[in-house]
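User: I'm new to structure prediction. If I give you an amino acid sequence, what do you actually give back? Let's try with this one:
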Amino acid sequence: MINYDYRTILQFISENSPKGLELLYLRYGKPFYSFALERWKFSEDEATEIVYKTLETLVLKLPNYEFGSQALFDGFLFKVFINFLKQKYRETRKRQLPQLEFFDLEQEFELPSNVQNALNRQSFSEYYSSDKLESPAMKILKTSLEQLEQMDRDILLLRAQNYSYEEIAGMLGIENKQLKVRHHRAKQKLINLLNEANI
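Assistant: Good question. You get back a string of structure tokens that encode the predicted 3D arrangement of the chain. For your 199 residues, that looks like this:
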């Protein structure tokens, strides 16, 4: 049986072997498909289309990159997949984004009501689904998020979708033991930026 690790997949892709695409599908096709169905509420046909577009694009892109670990490889694939999800959503504009849980406010710490309002589920969902942010609160949230490092934004988004720290570490290539601390720091940075904006 052929090993599915990233080096094997890259080897087949670099040799222009159809086995590369086959292994990508076997390892990532089902989880990507389920994610598109369950988290983004796409139809079965739409989810299938997104998965195939993602994998076909990866076959073309992957030979141009080097990966030092399985975690970095998985994280790269996930980011490409997310881009296709967003692209498809923008094309259709027929559904709301899945309900995203941003902060666990009750368990972690109490936030001022103005910050809670800016970080509510609806505004965070709208930020990631819309190119046109019309309300003042949404513009402030967008500006504040853009001041964070890309990695911090990714962590906040993935935690908002209820991924565990272990899953996020695998996707983004971060050591799990450092991730929780970075997540808390990213939240605090965003809260400070929102407070400075006097939302």
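You can read the tokens as a compact description of the fold. Here is one thing that stands out. The two ends are 57 Å apart (CA to CA).
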